[in-house]
Design goal:
Radius of gyration: 38 Å
Largest sheet: 5 strands, mixed
Structural class: alpha+beta
Helix content: 40-55%
Shape: elongated
Order of helices and strands: HEEHHHHEEEEEHEEHEEEHEHHHEEHH
Strand order of the largest sheet: 8-5-6-7-9
Number of helices: 13
Length: 640
């Protein structure tokens, strides 16, 4: 029943409720600039009134209220806005990673510039053209040798820089894997804390804010799928979790789950891929994988994988992230790699590539900086391959015209060589291929000619024997009939027709785009990539020059045009990355502002609430004071 004491309790409850609301408001104001904080509000409800229907209740004018209470402290959050922000955050992370590395590739090529490869190609052919006019002078020959060496050095430098850049991208993947696992561990701990708080009957608002902030950060690494569960818990997994062949989903792909006793997964980084003996890197075969358990550089493990194709090798080599198990209760098992069925891969196991638990983000809907680092490695590989094709085309075409085959069917003075094979010493002269004083000894020459098939941008170099004696450059019509140019007693010293033929290679159409950088030799290059020989593999006789040279292939392209096409492609890719980063930044900012308009703290609104709660508190205090006076009248005034 109601009375003064009941009214006193109503006022007291009002005081407590308004004080709690003021506490919540002050908490909002204090965290106005805290990243990831969601504003909170005190939800007030009326308490159970007097006069609830009952058999012994006396009918009256109506129920008499008993005051107010704070039923909950609610966090203002829109889950759909979280989903949109995280999705766009993943896209931004991917293209920021691509933009970073594609801009570095542009810096490596440094085109257009006076020191770029395009300029070196032009100066290389210019020097040969000038030599054709001054074949008898050592000065023109020296310029050819030095410009050729400069071109080879430029290709070497670009190759080495691209290779180093790829290693840097792999280091970024390794760091991203380690950071992702650290984020997952923190999210998992917060998940369990949130469950404990909610089970006890309280609202874990600040803990949920911390978890959401970590989820935002994780979404930049890769797309995540957040599933809500009981007691504000979540189950978390990547958006794309299919097996390497795409046939089905990885077994138990959850990274965080509600039940702490059930298995969750983590990510490990593949450090090295070492082929078995007698097998070249990149070819099909068995490889020993050394990986960092959970991305930790201090914990390594190994196993073997059977790769059936070059494509599978590239997929693994460019991805470098595999699934592993999370077992904090057993250090010997924690971080060990697992296959697509969730089984642990032991150190002495050899598994098929299709069974490998590869964390491959190849689906077009997948985003994130991990996807960016993986995709940019493919771009680097493509540019290295294009450089290799360019180097091989230059080396084979120049060598074919420069020295061709002598009457004995041998090339005694190749102009460009594979520097990895040309490491011999003759009479104290390092890297000499052929001893002109001992024509019978061709061991070094044979080794170098056999290694010509492996010429690429990283090992192309000018024959050191030519660098040391530029008069051995073959410039005359019949130089190809003699082991060395000095033995030619047919042509005059001013004959520069062979040098002119090499200069004219600038305009020759060669199918550079179709060169197999791993297997093409000079014979098949002439037969399939040029218009020479009618498909027989022989050079075409040029009646104007009076010597064999390379003719154009109608389906080919010029050397400098091929390289310019490569640079144009790079420019388009980098512009695309920059454009998407810019557009995505604006789009993400818009989503974040919309989310902040819902979850963010407005100081003006909080100050208005504070004034409202202050007046309500004062009014409730007045009620308590008034009831106190009335009780004084009842207790003390009735005695008079």
């Amino acid at each position: 029943m109601s009375g003064l004491f009941a009214t006193f309790n109503v006022g007291k409850r009002g005081l407590f409720a308004q004080q709690k609301a003021i506490d919540v408001t002050s908490h909002n104001i204090a965290n106005a600039n805290t990243e990831g904080y969601s504003r909170q509000r005190a939800i007030m409800e009326t308490t159970r009134p007097f006069g609830m229907p009952a058999l012994n209740s006396i009918s009256g004018p109506g129920q008499v209220g008993t005051g107010v209470e704070v039923s909950a402290i609610q966090r203002i959050r829109d889950n759909f806005m979280d989903f949109q922000v995280r999705r766009e955050n993943s896209t931004l992370g991917q293209y920021e990673a691509r933009d970073k590395y594609l801009s570095e590739i542009e810096n490596i090529f440094n085109e257009p510039s006076d020191t770029g490869i395009s300029t070196l190609i032009g100066k290389f052919f210019d020097s040969w053209e000038q030599l054709s006019k001054q074949a008898e002078t050592s000065n023109a020959r020296t310029i050819v040798a030095q410009q050729s060496a400069a071109l080879a050095d430029g290709l070497n430098h670009a190759y080495n820089q691209l290779t180093e850049l790829k290693r840097n991208a792999q280091e970024s993947i390794k760091q991203s894997v380690y950071d992702s696992n650290a984020l997952l561990d923190r999210i998992d701990k917060l998940n369990q804390q949130i469950i404990s708080v909610k089970v006890s009957g309280m609202e874990p608002n600040d803990l949920m804010d911390k978890r959401d902030l970590l989820l935002d950060e994780l979404s930049q690494k890769f797309n995540i799928n957040v599933e809500d569960d009981n007691f504000y818990s979540i189950n978390l997994k990547p958006e794309y979790t299919s097996t390497p062949d795409g046939s089905r989903e990885i077994e138990n792909p959850l990274l965080v789950r509600k039940n702490p006793n059930e298995a969750v997964r983590r990510l490990s980084y593949v450090k090295t891929l070492v082929p078995d003996d007698g097998q070249k890197q990149g070819e099909a075969g068995v490889y020993t994988i050394t990986y960092l358990r959970n991305g930790d550089k201090d914990q390594e493990a190994t196993f073997k994988v059977k790769i059936d194709s070059e494509e599978e090798y590239k997929r693994l080599e460019q991805c470098r992230v595999i699934w592993s198990q999370n077992d904090k209760n057993n250090d010997s098992k924690d971080g060990l790699a697992i296959d697509v069925n969730g089984a642990v891969i032991e150190s002495d196991d050899t598994i098929e590539f299709e069974k490998l638990g590869l964390f491959e983000l190849k689906n077009d809907t997948n985003r994130g900086e991990l996807k960016g680092y993986m995709s940019v490695q493919k771009d680097v590989d493509d540019y290295i391959e294009q450089l290799n094709k360019l180097a091989k085309a230059v080396a084979f075409s120049v060598n074919a015209v420069h020295s061709g085959k002598t009457a004995s069917g041998e090339d005694y003075m190749p102009f460009f060589v594979n520097s990895e094979a040309a490491k011999y010493t003759i009479n104290g002269n390092k890297n000499y291929l052929y001893d002109i004083n001992n024509p019978g000894d061709t061991t070094n020459l044979t080794n170098v000619l056999n290694a010509e098939v492996d010429i690429n941008a990283g090992n192309i170099s000018i024959n050191k024997q030519i660098l040391d004696d530029v008069m051995q450059i073959k410039t005359r019509t019949n130089d190809d009939q003699f082991n060395v140019a000095s033995l030619n007693d047919v042509d005059g010293e001013k004959d520069g027709k062979r040098a002119l033929a090499i200069a004219q290679l600038r305009d020759a159409l060669i199918k550079i785009q179709s060169i197999d950088v791993k297997y093409t030799d000079r014979e098949s290059f002439i037969k399939n990539m040029t218009g020479a020989g009618g498909g027989t593999g022989a050079l075409t006789f040029d009646s104007d020059l009076g010597l064999n040279t390379i003719s154009s292939n109608i389906n080919g392209m010029k050397v400098d045009s091929y390289f310019k096409d490569t640079i144009d492609k790079l420019g388009v890719q980098e512009q695309e990355a920059q454009r998407i980063v810019k557009n995505q930044g604006v789009l993400l900012q818009g989503f974040q502002e919309r989310r902040d308009s819902i979850s963010g703290v407005s100081l003006d609104e909080e100050m208005a609430n504070l004034v409202q709660y202050q007046h309500a508190y004062q009014a409730n205090a007045k009620i308590v004071a008034t009831v106190d006076e009335l009780l004084d009248v009842v207790v003390n005034g009735l005695k008079r």
